[in-house]
């Protein structure tokens, strides 16, 4: 990693929830630094000046739910370990092209043999130009989920937790004991036997527990939050539709009497809709797919107005991301991608994912909700970092944060990625890709 000290000038920096001018960004050794020590202790100035030419400089995007891309599925355990590792690198490098500098590779419901082979390859690792976007640990979606809301998942591998946490260890193998080093997020259905009681044990291991692919009622959802669940997986999809007498999992966004968290870590910041205006919001974060297919723009708007600081933009992209329409695989099942980029289980109308990219999600979120540029960017940067409890190093341009950032052009009214840096190094963008 370069010893050189870099200084970005002529930038509009996203700092402390504002886009500010007449400020500089300094970085060295892949970290954002404060220049004061350079001047007074080391008597050094910048070795290289980077002219942002008036563009917005923001943290790199974070995608906490992505199943694959470029013809590669993270749940595919066929072939050698070397081949799987090469495939992971292919996706990680490709994501940088869209400004995504960190991600949680997502594995859908699978048999234990799949987890034992794939999960060791999805452990946390730093990002680089050579290796691609940083891996933040896997997102395990299932198999402790509902048959009723299975979506494209293979129900033959579904499980319950009647024997407690040992059932989870049996399903995932030794990687689960590594906690967030291997598994950052786990999606479960809280109504499945034994699952809610296991949430505290999972949280103790450093795993973020999300609720999804569930038919739970509002009382079950709120109980899961009290047990430590802090996220909802792809809001509105694979869950009970909102009903005024029992709003189900969606209704948690309107909860007013959940216990107030004692710490900000892992929880949304307060907003005008929070139960407390000056304490962390006890309502969970929610992943939301802003492709215009999975969730109607009006529904995105309703969620945003209900709980603005809980929004986490995700792609839920599958192996077909970056490829044309056609037939691909997801967790061993055939899926079809149509002209809009939506993906369905082959021969059905069951949505299975999409091919949207994270920069598209940012643009769509701003367009659907009429939120500010800052809010749109933070839904793909600060919010996912807070969800994972890593905002000390990801999701901001604060001193000591990782030097993962993007240059954004907003001259057309939409945010477009123009330059991408990961661990302090700039990547080469493919012409016309973004």
Automatic annotation (TrEMBL):
Keywords recorded for this protein, A-Z: Carbohydrate metabolism, Hydrolase, Metal-binding
GO molecular function terms here?
A: metal ion binding; N-acetylglucosamine-6-phosphate deacetylase activity
Task: State the organism's lineage.
Answer: Eukaryota, Fungi, Fungi incertae sedis, Mucoromycota, Mucoromycotina
Q: Give me the residues that bind substrate, please.
A: 152, 237-238, 245, 294, 351-353
Q: Which reaction(s) are listed as its catalytic activity?
A: N-acetyl-D-glucosamine 6-phosphate + H2O = D-glucosamine 6-phosphate + acetate
- Positions contributing to Zn(2+) binding: 141, 213, 234
User: How the cofactor binds, per note?
Assistant: Binds 1 divalent metal cation per subunit.
Cofactors per UniProt? a divalent metal cation
Q: What is this protein called?
A: N-acetylglucosamine-6-phosphate deacetylase
Looking up PANTHER family in the UniProt record yields: N-ACETYLGLUCOSAMINE-6-PHOSPHATE DEACETYLASE (PTHR11113:SF14)
Q: Which CDD domains match?
A: NagA
Show the Gene3D superfamilies listed in the entry: Metal-dependent hydrolases, Urease, subunit C, domain 1
Q: Where is the active site?
A: 316
Enzyme Commission number(s): 3.5.1.25
According to its UniProt record, which protein family does this protein belong to? Belongs to the metallo-dependent hydrolases superfamily. NagA family.
A matching Pfam family: Amidohydro_1
Q: Which GO terms describe its biological process?
A: N-acetylglucosamine catabolic process
Matching InterPro entries = Amidohydro-rel, GlcNAc_6-P_deAcase, Metal-dep_hydrolase_composite, Metal_Hydrolase
- Domain (Amidohydrolase-related): residue spans on this chain: 56-425
């Amino acid at each position: 990693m370069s010893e050189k000290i870099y200084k970005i000038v002529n930038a509009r920096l996203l700092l402390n929830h504002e886009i500010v001018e007449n400020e500089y960004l300094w970085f060295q050794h892949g970290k954002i630094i404060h220049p004061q020590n350079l001047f007074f202790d080391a008597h050094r100035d910048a070795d290289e000046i980077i002219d942002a030419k008036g563009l917005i400089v923001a943290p790199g995007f974070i995608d906490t739910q992505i199943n694959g891309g470029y013809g590669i599925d993270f749940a595919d355990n066929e072939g050698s370990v070397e081949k799987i590792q090469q495939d992971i690198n292919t996706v990680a490098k490709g994501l940088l092209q869209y400004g995504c500098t960190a991600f949680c590779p997502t594995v859908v419901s699978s048999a234990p043999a799949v987890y034992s082979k794939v999960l060791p390859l999805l452990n946390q690792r730093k990002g680089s130009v050579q290796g691609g976007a940083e891996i933040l640990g896997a997102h395990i979606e299932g198999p402790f989920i509902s048959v009723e809301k299975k979506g494209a998942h293979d129900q033959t591998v579904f499980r319950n937790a009647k024997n407690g946490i040992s059932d989870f260890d049996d399903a995932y193998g030794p990687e689960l004991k590594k906690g967030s080093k291997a598994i950052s997020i786990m999606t479960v259905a809280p109504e499945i036997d034994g699952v809610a009681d296991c949430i505290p044990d999972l949280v103790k291991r450093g795993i973020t527990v999300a609720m999804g692919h569930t038919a739970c009622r509002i009382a079950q959802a709120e109980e899961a939050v009290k047990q430590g669940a802090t996220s909802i997986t792809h809001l509105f999809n694979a869950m009970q539709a909102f009903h005024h007498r029992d709003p189900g999992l969606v209704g948690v966004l309107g909860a007013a009497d959940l216990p107030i968290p004692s710490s900000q870590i892992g929880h949304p910041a307060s907003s005008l809709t929070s139960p407390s205006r000056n304490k962390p919001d006890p309502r969970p974060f929610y992943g939301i797919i802003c492709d215009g297919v999975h969730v109607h723009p009006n529904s995105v708007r309703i969620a945003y107005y209900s709980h603005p600081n809980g929004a986490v933009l995700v792609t839920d992209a599958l192996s077909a991301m970056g490829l044309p329409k056609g037939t691909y695989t997801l967790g061993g099942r055939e899926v079809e991608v149509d002209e809009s980029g939506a993906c369905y289980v082959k021969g059905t109308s069951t949505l299975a994912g999409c091919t949207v990219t994270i920069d598209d999600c940012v643009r769509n979120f701003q367009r659907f909700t009429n939120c500010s540029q800052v809010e749109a960017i933070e839904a793909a940067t600060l919010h996912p970092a807070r969800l994972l409890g890593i905002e000390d190093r990801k999701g901001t341009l604060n001193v000591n944060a990782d030097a993962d950032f993007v240059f954004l052009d907003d001259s057309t009214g939409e945010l477009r990625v123009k330059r991408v840096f990961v661990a302090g190094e700039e990547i080469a963008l493919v012409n016309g890709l973004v």
